[in-house]
Amino acid sequence: MRDLPCTAFEREHPDYCTEPGRDRTALHRDDDYLHFCLAPTTSTPKPCPVRSPGILRMAQEVTRVIGDHLGG
Hints:
two-stranded antiparallel sheet; globular; single chain; alpha+beta
């Protein structure tokens, strides 16, 4: 899956709703299905330099599942 509908948070923060005209946000680059960063990968590892909704979406889902498992 390349994109998902924008969330309310993403609509309020335009850097996260990457395709507002379609109400869609990209999870990864078209040419890179492995990484969630929307910037091109480099040969030297470094933090993602651009807002990338896929990173936030994945982190939220992981923490939700852990919270559910722990009874939170």
